[in-house]
Design goal:
The chain is of the alpha+beta class and 227 residues long. 26% of the residues lie in helices and 28% in strands.
Length: 227
C-alpha cells in the first residue's frame, strides 16, 4: 500500500510453540484521501480462544473504521467486544491504533496497554512511547485512553510491534532482550527500505534467541513510512 503517499510493510511470525494459532493481530485501512489507519494488538494467551478473539477484535476495528468511529470511542467499543467474546474473565488484550495523514505527516496515536513504537529513519532509530491507558478488559467500562498527536519527521517512519519481538532470550542464559536491547539492535540494522528493515530486524532477534530454542511468542510488525 503506497498510493496515498504512505508505504506500509507488515510481517507476522508465529512463535515456535504455537505455530498455527496466536493472539497477535494487525490491520490497515486506507481512505480515498490517502489517510492510513493501522492497528496492532495482542490477546493474552495462546491457542484457539486467543486466536478467535484476535480475529474478532481485528474485524471489530475494521468495521468501526469503515463506520467513521475512531479514537477513544472506538477502543471502548472494542473492549465491549472483548468482554462479550472472551471465555475467561481474566483475558485481556493490548493494542496501538494510529491515524496517519499522508499530506502533513500528522499522526494520532491511541494506546491501550501496548508497547511503544520505533521511530526509524536513514540516520537514527528511537523508541517512542505515546501516552496510553490500560489494556482492554482490565477495567471494563471504567478505563480511559488519551489520544496523542505527533508529526513524523521527513524521511522517517513508525514501526508498530508486539512484545514477542523483544521478549525472546539472548543467548544461553535467561536474560530477555527487552525494549532497550531491541532498540540497540535496531540501531545496527543497515537496511533502509521498510521491508528490508523489518526482515533484518526479525532475523537478528531470532539469531539471538536461537541458542535458547528460538522465539516463544508471536511477532507482528507494521511499518508506516511516508513516501
Amino acid at each position: 500500500m503506497g498510493d496515498g503517499g504512505i508505504e506500509v510493510e507488515s510481517h507476522y511470525r508465529p512463535g515456535r510453540t504455537h505455530s498455527l494459532l496466536g493472539g497477535d493481530f494487525y490491520d490497515i485501512v486506507q481512505e480515498p484521501d490517502g489517510t492510513v489507519h493501522a492497528v496492532i494488538g495482542d490477546v493474552a494467551g495462546h491457542g484457539p480462544d486467543a486466536a478467535a478473539l484476535g480475529v474478532a477484535l481485528r474485524l471489530a476495528w475494521r468495521t468501526l473504521i469503515l463506520s467513521g468511529i475512531t479514537g477513544p470511542q472506538q477502543v471502548r467499543m472494542m473492549e465491549r467486544v472483548l468482554v462479550a467474546e472472551r471465555v475467561d474473565h481474566r483475558t485481556f488484550a493490548t493494542l496501538t491504533a494510529v491515524r496517519a495523514s499522508s499530506r502533513d505527516r500528522a499522526v494520532q496515536v491511541i494506546r491501550a496497554g501496548h508497547p511503544g513504537m520505533l521511530l526509524h529513519s536513514r540516520t537514527d532509530t528511537n523508541w517512542l512511547e505515546a501516552a496510553g491507558g490500560p489494556a482492554l478488559g482490565v477495567m471494563p467500562g471504567r478505563a480511559t485512553w488519551p489520544v496523542s498527536e505527533l508529526t513524523v519527521p521527513e524521511g522517517a517512519g513508525l514501526v508498530l510491534l508486539t512484545d514477542g519481538l523483544y521478549e525472546g532470550y539472548t543467548g544461553n542464559g535467561r536474560e530477555r532482550l527487552g525494549e532497550a536491547g531491541l532498540l540497540a539492535l535496531a540501531r545496527t540494522v543497515t537496511a533502509v527500505r521498510p521491508g528490508g528493515f523489518v526482515d533484518e530486524l526479525i532475523r537478528r532477534v531470532e539469531a539471538l534467541a536461537s541458542t535458547s530454542g528460538g522465539l516463544d511468542d508471536d511477532v507482528a510488525v507494521v511499518y508506516l513510512r511516508w513516501a
